[in-house]
């Protein structure tokens, strides 16, 4: 940094410095370090996407002091910072990537490509001759890839596949893309569509898939809306769907984080971050109807809410509402309860559930053996309920679950009927219930929902249940019936055993296999319990 302060004589001293860093945390740490040096003639300005418009606008406002702008790659192409004469390029950026292994969207810090490095260099020298300092060697630059991969090769393709299927573009893997995606990403896209019921096992678009294609949102969010329309909670879920489709309207300025957290806490819900959105929406709509536009904007800023993103939230909500009404659905008049609303949310988030593990790590075991943590900004971070679902799983320093809600495993079981894996064990005869019972283990994507549930084993495996019924109930005599034959046979067996005892022989009564064969020949194939046998 010190090199850029030797700028030569005259007014060039006040030209700005643009520093490219990889993320918010690095920007905060660098800003704090620079402020400790108390540079009287310089102003440190953070710049990243989550900042409020007012804070972002500081880079365009002259202050009479040198601007030191600490930015993510948002300043690489999205906007041009005026007055920049010097650029410091650390050579790193957070790049969104979908992982076909973990099935989550990752945000790893990576080396930038040569094209990005050149783009960053082009940010300086526009107002006068400039200097770009790269904090990596020329050899490292030459060894980097020429361009950053296009987004189609770095994201989940479910939405693209669904649209292409409806347009009858044929096999996705053979479509002549300019930059064809990895076949594994295509396979994962199909897997997600099958998870939400948009395609069947033969990869044909279902009725739900055709409806999802008409909604201008991510397929997961669209699936929630369709489920809510049938479940009587569309009004609340329209609010949540719109919130998940835009950037978080809540601001958290660096210098007023505690005040912002206190203001946002008023809308928290102790069991669900999704309901926190609903609480915030109700408050904003009430204020919108009572305040003028100017007062409403001021009200948002006082509560650390971005007026621009609040308006975008409102616009997306209106658009989705109109779209759902065109599909023939109407809002519910009564408030939806917690269980109904979250069952609808689960329809689109079945692979985003988790169960808290034992121990002090405070992590959750999720689908496909993933371990994740509740994001510290969540209202459930301190509570840590046993079962949760999340709107998204994003990997930064750890795999974090964002926008979290407490759920019950039976809700998951009801929503994921077509995806559940059921295993049955220990079939046995129960005289009191008059049926063959067993135990069931239910899992979803490798995550156990039910460990050991007693079930009626007969409908599961009628052949094995019939054999157990004959051997345990009829052959072993562990049975109760009013039928005359049973009393006759039991009396006869008792008499034969008395005869064997008197004669000290064990070969008079036929063996159990012959008794089993006797009943097996005479009892119909579909009889495997006491009530049906009685009939």
In summary, what is this structure?
With 535 residues, the chain is α/β, with parallel strands linked by helices.
Question: Could you walk me through the main structural features you see in this protein, from its secondary elements to its overall organization?
Answer:
- The protein has helices spanning about 25-35, 55, 75, 115-120, 140-145, 160-165, 185-195, 205-210, 220-230, 235-245, 255-265, 275-290, 295-300, 305-325, 340-345, 410-415, 460-475, 485-505, 510-520, 530-535, and strands at about 15-20, 40-45, 65-70, 85-90, 90-95, 95-100, 105, 110, 130-135, 355, 365, 370-375, 385-395, 400-405, 420-430, 435-445, 445-455.
- With about 525 residues, the protein is an alpha/beta fold.
- Strand 11 and strand 12 form a beta hairpin.
- The protein is elongated and about 120 Å long.
- The model is unreliable at about 1-15 (pLDDT under 50).
What is the element layout, followed by pairings?
Blueprint lengths: L15 E5 L3 H13 L5 E6 L5 H4 L9 E6 L2 H4 L6 E6 L2 E3 L2 E3 L4 E3 L2 E3 L2 H8 L9 E4 L3 H6 L14 H9 L16 H13 L11 H6 L6 H13 L2 H12 L11 H9 L7 H18 L2 H10 L4 H20 L11 H9 L6 E4 L7 E3 L4 E4 L12 E9 L3 E8 L2 H7 L5 E10 L4 E10 L2 E10 L5 H14 L8 H20 L8 H11 L7 H5 L1
Helix pairs in contact: 6-7, 9-10, 9-15, 10-12, 10-14, 15-16, 17-19
């Amino acid at each position: 940094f010190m090199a850029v302060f030797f700028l030569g004589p005259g007014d060039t001293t006040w030209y700005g410095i643009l520093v490219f860093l990889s993320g918010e945390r690095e920007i905060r740490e660098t800003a704090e370090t620079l402020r400790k040096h108390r540079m009287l003639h310089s102003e440190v300005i953070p710049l990243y996407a989550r900042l409020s418009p007012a804070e972002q606008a500081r880079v365009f406002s002259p202050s009479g002091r040198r601007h030191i702008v600490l930015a993510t790659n948002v300043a690489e192409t999205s906007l041009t910072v005026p007055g920049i004469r010097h650029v410091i390029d650390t050579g790193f950026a957070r790049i969104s990537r979908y992982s076909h292994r973990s099935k989550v969207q990752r945000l790893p810090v990576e080396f930038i490509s040569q094209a990005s490095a050149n783009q960053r260099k082009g940010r300086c020298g526009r107002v006068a001759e400039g200097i770009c300092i790269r904090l990596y060697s020329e050899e490292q630059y030459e060894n980097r890839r020429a361009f950053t991969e296009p987004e189609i090769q770095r994201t989940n393709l479910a939405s693209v596949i669904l649209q292409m299927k409806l347009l009858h573009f044929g096999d996705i893997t053979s479509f002549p893309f300019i930059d064809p995606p990895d076949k594994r990403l295509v396979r994962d896209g199909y897997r997600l569509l099958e998870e939400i019921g948009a395609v069947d096992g033969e990869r044909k678009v279902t009725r739900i898939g055709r409806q999802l294609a008409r909604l201008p949102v991510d397929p997961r969010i669209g699936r929630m809306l369709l489920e809510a329309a049938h479940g009587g909670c569309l009004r609340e879920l329209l609010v949540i769907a719109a919130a998940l489709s835009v950037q978080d309207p809540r601001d958290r300025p660096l210098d007023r984080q505690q005040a912002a957290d206190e203001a946002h806490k008023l809308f928290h819900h102790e069991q669900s971050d999704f309901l926190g959105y609903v609480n915030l929406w109700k408050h904003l709509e009430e204020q919108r109807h009572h305040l003028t536009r100017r007062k409403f904007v001021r009200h948002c800023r006082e509560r650390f809410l971005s007026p621009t993103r609040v308006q975008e939230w409102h616009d997306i909500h209106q658009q989705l509402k109109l779209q759902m009404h065109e599909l023939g659905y109407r809002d519910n008049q009564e408030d939806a309860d917690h269980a109904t609303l979250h069952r609808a949310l689960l329809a689109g988030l079945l692979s985003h559930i988790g169960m808290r593990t034992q121990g002090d790590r405070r992590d959750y075991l999720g689908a496909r053996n993933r371990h994740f943590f509740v994001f510290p900004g969540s209202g459930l971070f301190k509570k840590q309920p046993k079962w949760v679902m999340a709107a998204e799983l994003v990997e930064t320093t750890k795999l974090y679950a964002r926008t979290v809600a407490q759920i019950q495993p039976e809700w998951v079981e009801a929503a994921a009927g077509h995806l559940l894996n059921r295993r049955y064990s220990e079939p046995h005869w129960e005289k009191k219930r008059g049926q063959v019972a067993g135990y069931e283990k239910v899992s979803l994507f490798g995550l156990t929902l039910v460990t050991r549930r007693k079930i009626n084993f007969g409908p599961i495996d009628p052949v094995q249940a019939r054999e157990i019924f004959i051997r345990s109930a009829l052959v072993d005599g562990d049975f109760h019936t009013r039928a005359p034959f049973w009393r006759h046979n039991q009396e006869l067996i008792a008499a034969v055993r008395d005869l064997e005892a008197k004669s000290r022989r064990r070969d008079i009564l036929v063996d159990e296999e012959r008794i089993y064969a006797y009943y097996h020949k005479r009892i119909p194939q579909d009889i495997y319990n006491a009530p049906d046998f009685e009939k």
